Amino acid sequence: METRHAADLKKILETIEADKKEMAQKMQAMQEQIQELLISQNHGEDSASSGSVNRRGAGSWHPNDIKVDIPEYDGKLDPDEFVEWLRTVERVFDYKQTTEDNKVKIVAFKLRKYASTWWSNTCLKRERAGKEKIQNWPKMKAKMKQKFLPTYYVQNSFSQLHSLRQGTGTAEEYSREFEYLLMKCDVPEDDPQTLVRYLGGLEPRVANVVELHSYQTLTELTLLSHKEVSNLNLILLLARSRRMTMRSR
């Protein structure tokens, strides 16, 4: 009985060890492939930058001369840090005009420690289950959000957005906090429901006037609200000045 148990245990350990080796080999191959991609991309940027400098002159400057890169992510359980990292990734992709075919590989190369192990394990599980590889960034980003963005974080952000009011703060402060919560919730800023939600949190006197205007986007709506607040403050100031003038007579 003990001999059979020991044999079973040995078999399990051998299977685990084989899985670890397989995962390590796949990770190594992936890293080598991405490293070659990054080297090729950097060479291309260097050549383009060099050619641009030659055309512009040695003393000139151009935005393409700036070196930008995606920061590493190790899977820390800090939702705000993860959300900010995602924004940085999107900005770098936009700046470098990264093709969709390369985004997943580049991000995978930037994962470290727990995040790297999780992604390798996710890819291995999908392969064993006969599922296709994740080859587009939106799907990879969705998987990462499921893993590193706790449910309570999203729920709290939506709750804060729903209950946000201007109160005694300025319209600028309200607008800035509203837009920040929209980004945390990943809500389209120009959706009609978003615009209604923004109006619902404005000071009623301002909201009633803003509703009389035509607007299509959140940017237009915030500019209108700031303008009407300025007009309202001016009216209140003139009224106060008139009252003081009447009292002094």
UniProtKB/TrEMBL annotation:
Retrotransposon gag domain segment(s): 105-203
Repressor among keywords: no
Comp. bias (Polar residues): 43-53
Coiled-coil regions listed: 6-40
Keyword Coiled coil: yes
The entry's keywords: Coiled coil
Record-linked InterPro entries: Retrotrans_gag_dom (IPR005162)
Region spans: Disordered: 43-65
Protein name according to UniProt: Retrotransposon gag domain-containing protein
The organism of origin for this protein: Artemisia annua (Sweet wormwood)
